[in-house]
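HUMAN:
Just now I want nothing more than another pair of eyes on a protein record. I would be glad if you read both lines and explained how they fit together. I have put the entry right below:
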Amino acid sequence: MLRCVLLLSRGFAGGVGRTVKKPPEPPRPPRPPRITLISSDNSVSILDKAEAENIAKIKRFKLVKIEDYDAQTRRPVYKLMSPSEYLKEEMQKRSEKKADKNKSTIKGRKVLPIATKIGDNDLQTRINNLKRWLDKNYEVKVIINGDKENTEKSAKIFTKVTGECPPECNIQQKVVKGGDIKFVVCPQPRSETKASDDASQSGQHKNTSDESNKS
């Protein structure tokens, strides 16, 4: 009996001063990402992205990201756009993208051989190929293979080809040897080239119309 009392007293004495460990707290759920929202009236607010998406859905607007990261606020920036505003924005982006393509450097070089024995229809086909390559920002090396006994034919083809090139193009590296003529046609930005083609085509149509009226 005495032994049991001693064991119990020792147990109570050993428990004094012990700290009971608390169970670990459950991890906090991640905070929804916050964004800077520019409304249609240009007012600025800070809210969760999910809330902004809900507002856009209710108003039937587009939620468009206009900046990935704002260094000052350290948040992405979004804007609410009406369908008409969104369409205008997309058209502007396409226009800027097209302008960037127009400013691109020369893509490469094409070679266009032409024999002086070529027929008029085939020659026109070659010239159309030349203009198509120039429109795609390729420079074209033209090689006119002729007879040294008849250099006039080569010169006539040279005049025909260069005369139908857009006026903004540059004719470079012209070499005449016997009846052969070699030269390089370098393109200009596609927007300018296209404008020149349109002007040239309109002039051709006008001339055709005038001739038909005379007849």
